[in-house]
Amino acid sequence: MASTLSIRPLDGVTFGAVVTGLRLAELDDETWQALHDAWLDRALLIFPGQFLKRDEQIAFARRFGPLEFEMAAISNVKADGTLRQEKDNDDMMKVLKGNMGWHADSTYMPVQAKGAVFSAEVVPTIGGQTGWADMRAAYEALDAATRARIEDMSAYHSLHYSQSRLGHETKKSDGEYSGYGLHEGPVPLRPLVKAHPETGRRSLLIGRHAHNIPGLDRAESERFLDGLIDFACQPPRVYHHDWAPGDVVVWDNRCLLHQATPWDMTQPRVMWHSRIAGDPASEAGLAA
Length: 288
Known about the structure:
Low-confidence stretches: none
CATH superfamily: Clavaminate synthase-like
Shape: globular
CATH class: Alpha Beta
Structural class: alpha+beta
């Protein structure tokens, strides 16, 4: 193990740690195990100044398990190098804006993602933070009556639903967005309370994709779920990261929500996302 390895918990929040004194591209097995143990405990690990190459990021993400996809750009820079115009509000811009709502990745897919590795290549001078929220601590902070009420509740999860709340007609495409997550077919049903498959710790499974709690009418379900998000995503359960080029993070999607935040879109922002696939044994939706 690197003798200079430091894993420092974030100050003032219930989760997260900053990790220094190592190169992610050169991990030995002992250091990897220490990182994995810290990840399960803290759920979010931040590695400043790593400047991983794309193959190095993919290799690091694979240490956590098979990948849902190897790498995708999250960016307002088009393939031709020009900036996407916020005023045009095309499909990709609508998805970028949607990501500013609190969510967990791939809850709208048959199998929810396990986690993600995210890195910064180009960052704007104004805005563009990424936030995370600890759903373990949120569940534990609920009053006993609410915990009892939600124990057997579930909700459907859909990217069509979450984007529709922003006025995005997701059946239309201008060819810019890949369409990932906008499939037709069964809509996954997921419990509102979930036990982590490795730690056993219970957490809320909510976020912008969740809707239509069985047994509640649509309006009541929406109010209730929005209220849970508002309660859950409050200090000391939230952290927003100010990115610098070369920063890398890995988070546990099974117990954290995350969100993008607005930035000055006259400036480029280029981030790279590698998504870790969930285990169907623990991350598949419920039988409806």
